[in-house]
Design brief:
single chain; mainly alpha; 18 helices; about 80% helix; about 0% strand; globular
């Protein structure tokens, strides 16, 4: 299943290439419509094969919506509001994911069969209900309009790995690859770890996951503020080390009675908070470092790298469990990849306070 979703990410890369050539607005709206339609189709999938087909295609358009919307936040907003815009984007994304968890819990409590079908059907309501507002409100990016048509038409992917952009591309891609593996390892097995390893009740698990995720939202505005004050690169480096320590602490923490739940809740909140701060600054810097003609393409590459790294994470965890004999040891080992993220970002130029064209060398 994860492999098919990774194939969808390949399609996202080609769609984001079209976004750089044809414009942001129309392709964002089109991708949103297709994603909503495929969410509804998934809800009525009659078999596993059809479900996988719909999900693969959905992931293609969903990835395009994510990548293009991130680019548009950067291109729409002035320099002093850019990080704050990305913090709002991250908060909205986290709230959407949290609502899905809450809906699943509610539907199960109501003993509604095939709750996953309801989740996919209900998820399509938001884009359907807001589509007219989006169409009326969105205009094409001024940055896209300002570039010469021939500049976008003749821009080659190879430019990202030549000249001044080579070091930026390699640093960003390698850092994102390591970051996703470390994050996937520490977050994908939280439920299993809390229930099967620590034998916590469902109420305690829900308190830790929902409560920690909610408190962690505060990391988004704080990350934006830190990115504007201390720099995007420095914030990512410091928060990467802190989230690594929190993840290791989460899987090693032991206590008796309510102190166990309180300690895990605190560590999970900090892990999510620092992770949100990283995401805000990462979205800002990865869109600020590259020119208009390649900005969406880079986000498409980020989506593809994240999909591939997510798939690889589960293989790595399985191999490390065989080697170490423990899920905890496997997750801690992969969390140490955050150190390589810090090293990679040391080679990334700082973009705080810079006009977009100057930061991206878009002359």
């Amino acid at each position: 299943m994860f492999g098919w979703l990774a194939i969808g990410a390949i399609g996202t890369l080609f769609l984001t290439r079209a976004v750089d050539k044809l414009g942001r607005r129309n392709l964002l709206i089109g991708s949103l419509c297709f994603a909503a339609a495929l969410a509804v189709a998934t809800a009525f999938a009659p078999s596993l094969r059809v479900y996988i087909l719909f999900q693969t295609t959905f992931s293609l358009f969903h990835g395009a919506v994510v990548a293009t919307s991130i680019v548009m936040v950067t291109e729409y907003l002035p320099t002093d509001l850019r990080a704050r815009g990305h913090s709002i984007w991250v908060v909205a994304h986290v709230l959407g994911s949290g609502m899905a968890i809450i809906l699943i819990t509610v539907l199960r409590e109501l003993n509604i069969e095939s709750e996953w079908r309801w989740i996919w059907g209900l998820s399509a309501l938001v884009p359907i209900c807001t589509l007219k507002y989006i169409v009326d409100s969105l205009s094409e990016s001024d940055h896209f309009h300002s570039q010469q048509t021939t500049e976008a038409d003749h821009a080659s992917w190879a430019e990202l790995f030549q000249g001044a952009y080579r070091r930026r591309s390699i640093a960003v891609i390698s850092a994102d690859f390591a970051m996703v593996i470390a994050a996937s390892a520490s977050l994908s097995y939280v439920f299993y770890y809390l229930i099967e390893v620590l034998s916590l009740t469902q109420i305690n698990v829900a308190s830790i996951v929902i409560g920690g995720g909610t408190l962690g939202i505060l990391g988004s505005p704080l990350g934006a503020r830190a990115g504007d004050r201390f720099g995007r690169r420095n914030t990512i480096i410091v928060c990467s080390l802190l989230v690594m320590l929190c993840a290791i602490g989460f899987y090693l923490f032991r206590a008796n009675g309510p102190f166990l739940v309180v300690g895990l809740l605190l560590l999970f909140s900090l892990m999510h908070g620092f992770g949100s701060a990283i995401r805000v600054c990462k979205q800002a810097v990865t869109t600020e470092l590259f020119p208009t003609r390649h900005r969406a393409t880079v986000q498409g590459i980020v989506v593809l790298v994240a999909a591939g790294a997510s798939v690889l994470t589960h293989f790595c965890v399985a191999l490390l469990i065989d080697y170490t004999g423990s899920l905890t040891s496997a997750i801690i080992a992969l969390s140490l990849l955050r150190i390589s993220v810090c090293i990679a970002y040391m080679f990334v130029p700082e973009t705080r306070g810079m006009e977009l064209k100057n930061a991206a060398l878009d002359h």
